[in-house]
Specification:
It contains 9 helices and 8 strands. It is α/β, with parallel strands linked by helices. Bound molecules: 2'-deoxycytidine-5'-monophosphate.
């Protein structure tokens, strides 16, 4: 038996932070599905494989080994790529890579195997709609583009990097448009997902709200 919590939503909605917090508090395995797409994008960059080279992409997918460790480290074919998958180069390339059907088919398969037989919390864009349409709890976590831009500015400022607000906002809007309009598995709230707008909520408030929802869903299981 597995118990699956699906957290979907756009970039910057707080999914990553909140998923990790809830996984620690409730003892659920945390699965960051975006990291799996980032691993494919990095592998393609490492092997100099372009978006239209289907045979080479297929080969990469046949040999790929992605390991999400419990401590948050990410291994690609035995190499620790935890930081390498977060570079601007990978962040840019992963968007078109994640729109390819052969990539999505393989990643959905890998993601389902990662959760098999486990109690897991999975974050992504299509968990409640495609990966686990029968998930026990489905959350669609949202925030306004302006708030997500502010969060990104703050996050980078903490690392000593000052960004231009208008440019950050523009990038977020462009990424949303791509994710919402792509042909396969677009970012979409599942009909039975609970919508949570985190724009005016703290991380703890969102975490607690979702924990309440999960506890309510498990009341008959305990
Ligand atoms: O959440 P993230 O920024 O790490 O995701 C990286 C990319 O992968 C992003 O362009 C959206 C895509 N993605 C997806 O298409 N489906 C998922 N379930 C998770 C991420």
């Amino acid at each position: 038996m597995e118990f699956i919590v699906a957290i979907d939503g756009p970039a910057g909605s707080g999914k990553g932070t909140i998923t990790k917090k809830i996984s620690t508090e409730l003892g659920l395995v945390s699965i960051d599905t975006g990291a799996t797409y980032r691993c494919v994008a990095l592998n393609m960059l490492q092997e100099n494989v372009g978006l239209d080279e289907e045979a080479k992409i297929k080969q990469i997918l046949e040999n790929i080994n992605i390991d999400l460790k419990p401590d948050g480290k990410i291994f690609l074919n035995g190499e620790d790529v935890t930081n390498k998958i977060r570079t601007p180069e990978v962040s840019k390339f992963v968007s078109p890579v994640s729109a390819l059907k052969i990539v999505r088919d393989k990643m959905v398969d890998i993601q389902r195997k990662m959760a098999e037989g486990k109690n897991a919390i999975m974050e992504g864009r299509d968990i409640g709609t495609v990966v686990f349409p029968n998930a026990n709890v489905k959350i669609y976590l949202d925030a306004t583009p302006e708030e997500r831009a502010n969060r990104r500015m703050k996050q980078m400022a903490e690392k000593g990097i000052k960004l231009d607000y208008q440019q950050v906002l523009q990038e977020i809007i462009e990424r949303d448009t791509r994710d919402l309009n792509r042909a396969i598995a677009p970012l979409k709230k599942a009909d039975d997902a609970i919508y949570v707008d985190s724009s005016n909520m703290t991380i703890d408030e969102v975490t607690n709200k979702i924990i309440q929802i999960i506890k309510f869903a498990t009341r008959d299981v305990d």
